[in-house]
Amino acid sequence: MSMHGVPRGITNPPPPIAPAAAAEAEVTHAGAQTPGTLVLVFVFLAAFALYYFVNWKLLSFIWRIG
Amino acid sequence: MNTFRTCPVTGLKVHAQADGLIKANAVVATVALLVGGIAAILVLLTRWQVVHLLPANWFYRLLTIHGMTMLIFFILFFEMAILYFASAVLLNSRVATPRLGWASFWLMVVGAVMVEWNMFAGKADVLFTSYVPLKANSWYYLGVILFAVGALLVVCIFFGTLVVAKREKTYTGSVPLVTFGAATAAIIAVITLGHGAAIYIPTYLWSLGLIKSVDAELYRLVWWGLGHSSQQINVAAMVSVWYLLGALTIGSVVLNEKVSRSAFVLYVLFISMASAHHLLVDPGFGPAWKVWNTSYAMYLAVLASMVHGFTVPAGLELGQRLRGLTKGLFEWLRKAPWDDPAFSSMIFSIIIFGFVGGITGVTFGTEQINIIAHNTLRVPGHFHATVVAGTALAFMGLTYYVIPLIFRKQVAFWPLAKIQPYLFAGGMLLFSVAMTFAGTFGVPRRHYDISFSQAPFDVEFSPAVDLVMAITAIGGLLAAVGGGIYILVTVWSVFFGKPLELGGKRV
């Protein structure tokens, strides 16, 4: 049920997690359970490495040695 | 005095005084957002060289007003509301000393009004940092001190409420993670306000003529213990809000309580040292001090943000997967409630804070790179991504739950509310990235006229600067529309909104 002017989390709160699913999650490694987030983490890492490298390159242009 | 109501949605017992204090602080925060937002538009239209709206004196005046009103008054009033929520409401407790809470609130209001009055009257054109020997009217410094004392008292009331809740056994086990995060924000607030007292009290005495001078270098050192650390209160509060919104919107789970709590502790231990990165090109400080504070200690605070940057989305993913959304890598994200403005606000806040604010911040926290970024538009490009698109957007998302749960009103202009986070986040993303590019071309920050007209020397920027400054302006105006919608929605909902009804019953 969705209601005008009230967020879904109030009118239609998330259903409770089935105990069997919760018990399985307890024994599985977190990384294996969240593959989508792991992909996002590697995208972040690539973006960070690229930006960091570009900045050092830029520094080498602006502050030339010799 | 100690009357409670039970929230029909969450089942939490809400103390009437906590209810009132949250409402009062949230309303004043919105007023501050309006004032700071108008100043932002005028500053933006002046920096956009094609429009160049204001004369120089009003540009610097409004830049001062924008900085103080947004970074201090809007954010801190909202955070005071969060502290009452995270202590009294989440722990089913009464507020420790409600009368002192109201006295602190009014002290903060009086301080803020004094500061605003002096800034608008042109008696404090000293910018946000108010670096000495720039001198403002002594009432300005007194206003800042009163505001800070009020905020410090609220932090004490927060700790007092934790003690009351523990003693009166209003909860079992450990405090919730959100309360724990708010407690770290409160601890950082004590450190921050201590620095504020250490520097603003002598500066106030100096403005009165009671002491001869304030050392400029010492001022910069201590002031940044206030200036940057106050933004770290925001980070801790924002991350707490991410956890809260994740649970409220899609029932996210906490992957590992110990890991998340340890990351909050890292903020307390190391984030104040990150203030040193503001002084990386300051000739008065030695390289060992700079390298220690920024290249080692700061990274431990960065580690904390990276931990939260993983655990929050991973908690969302796991929560969705445990409810059956297991197809492929991103079904959990695709089928998330994107029409819930609180959810979209939270996601955009996480993405922009991490990808734009985080990456740019860590990069020029490096001493060598800082030399090409310092005092350019890259710096405001960075902190608009963290504080505005990160913190302010997360707070906006929280508001869409505060209106029905605390004010017990329906959110007005619901279709507009749903698109508001998209407009605001899209605008701020454009604004921050374009500003960062402009800074890369060497465009200075806090500068009235980058064409340097009537200057005895000639400064030429790349022709690309005109383009990126125009994109900055368009992004800023788009964000201003999003911010305007937020103010319209919240003010209308709170003062003229329909009472909330659930299942045909008025809440």
Structural class designation of chain B = mainly alpha
Largest sheet of chain A: none
Percent range for helical residues of chain B? over 70%
**Structural class by secondary-structure content of chain A:** mainly alpha
Write the H/E string of chain A, N to C: HHHH
Largest sheet of chain B: 2 strands, antiparallel
Give the oligomeric state: heterodimer
How would you write the strand order of the largest sheet of chain B?
1-2
**Which residues of chain B sit in consecutive blocks of at least 5 with pLDDT less than 50?**
none
CA-CA gap between termini of chain B: 21 Å
Strand content of chain A: under 5%
Q: What does the overall shape of chain B look like?
A: globular
* Terminus-to-terminus distance of chain A: 70 Å
Mean pLDDT of chain A: 85
Alpha-carbon Rg of chain A, integer = 23 Å
Low-confidence stretches of chain A: none
Domain count of chain A: the total is: 1
Task: Report the count of strand segments of chain A.
Answer: 0
Summarize the topology.
The complex is a heterodimer of chains A (66) and B (507).
Chain A: H1 8-11, H2 19-27, H3 30-33, H4 35-62
Chain B: E1 4-6, E2 13-15, H1 16-47, H2 56-89, H3 98-120, H4 138-167, H5 177-207, H6 216-227, H7 229-250, H8 257-270, H9 287-321, H10 331-334, H11 341-363, H12 367-373, H13 378-405, H14 414-440, H15 464-496, E3 501-502, E4 505-506
Antiparallel strand pairs in B: 1-2, 3-4
Helix pairs in contact in B: 1-2, 1-3, 1-15, 2-3, 2-4, 2-5, 2-7, 3-4, 4-5, 5-6, 5-7, 5-8, 7-9, 7-11, 7-13, 8-9, 9-11, 11-13, 11-14, 13-14, 13-15, 14-15
